[in-house]
Amino acid sequence: MSLLELSNVTAGYGQTPVLFDISMKVEKGDLACLLGRNGVGKTTLLRSIIGLNALSKGSMVFDADDISKTPTYKRAKYGIAYIPQGREIIPYLSVLDNLKLGLAASGRKSKKVPDEIFEFFPMLKEHLSRQGGLLSGGQQQQLAIARGLMCNPKLMLLDEPTEGIQPSIVQEIEETLKRINKEKGITVLVVEQKIDFARQLAEKFFIMDKGAIVARGETKALTDSMVNQYLAV
Predict the structure, then answer these.
(1) Within 13 A of 134's CA, how many CA atoms are on the CB side?
(2) Which residues contact 154 (CB under 8 A, 6 or more apart)?
(3) Nearest CA to 33 among 223, 218, 228?
(4) 3-class SS string, 22-59
(5) Based on the structure, what is the number of domains in the chain?
(6) pLDDT band at 103 (very low <50, low <70, confident <90, very high)
(7) Burial label, 44 (beta-carbon count in 10 A; 0-12, 13-18, 19+)
(8) Burial status of residue 73 (CB atoms within 10 A of its CB: 0-12, 13-18, 19 or more)
(9) Residue 42 and residue 100: Cα distance in Å, rounded?
(10) CATH number of the domain that 224 lies in?
(11) What is the pTM of this model?
């Protein structure tokens, strides 16, 4: 069953379109990667799904509701979490206060960090009073994912979560995203440049080129020829 369905979506910045007639479905429970070279529109697509870029054409349905014109804050309450490229935690706030921002975005009344957050990210429990900006890049990325998880989303959108992170933390992030997907049933869509990471993480893939989806399928069907055609630099 589809959780997210885009139909003929065109979007961009001002009068400049970046996405062209994109149609795609993300099924409930999917763990999928969105692949493509730099500048093909991957980030714009995620921003459009969360509502930061308005659609100039087409429609977007999330969990049976048309969200084509729904403001960003309402999409968060519907159950879409967005972890942007560069993490964008608040550096002068503590780890605990950064996590609580996730609760605020969801509209949940609870002020307590669920214990399961520390089951997925045990490192954070050791640094609750530490300023977010004093964490390493990998720790900040884990905090950003945990903050998104705080709103108990149905869909998590992650934009290049492995960028600039050491390999051991990349592996931890991969394992944690798999657990979040399997144990909590959260659908995950990850923008990624690293093909090896995408193949290890995802069960499905989409490839973008020049603002359009040009290939899709199960990750085991992602061939070297596709990689060379659409992803090789």
Answers:
(1) 10
(2) 3, 28, 63, 78, 79, 80, 186, 187
(3) 218
(4) EEEEEECCCEEEEECCCCCCHHHHHHHHHCCCCEEEEE
(5) 1
(6) confident
(7) buried
(8) exposed
(9) 28
(10) 3.40.50.300
(11) 0.94
Give CA–CA dist 62/138, Å, rounded.
31
Domain range for 50: 2-231
List, for residues 55-75, the tens digit of each pLDDT value. Answer: 999 999 999 999 999 999 899
Q: Are strands 2-13 and 16-27 parallel, antiparallel or unpaired?
A: antiparallel
Q: Which residue has the tokens 């206060």?
A: 97
Q: Is the pLDDT of residue 108 over 70?
A: no
Question: Measuring CA to CA, which residue among 176, 185, 190, 175 is closest to residue 154?
Answer: 185
Instruction: Tokens 């403001």: give the residue.
Output: 71
pLDDT class of 185 with cuts at 50, 70, 90: very high
CA dist., res. 202 & res. 199, Å (int):
6
> What is the token pair recorded at 166?
């050491």
Answer yes or no: is pLDDT of 107 > 80. Answer: no
Task: List C-alpha distances in Å: 174 to 30, 129, 188, 198.
Answer: 15, 26, 12, 9
* Mean pLDDT confidence for 165-169: 89
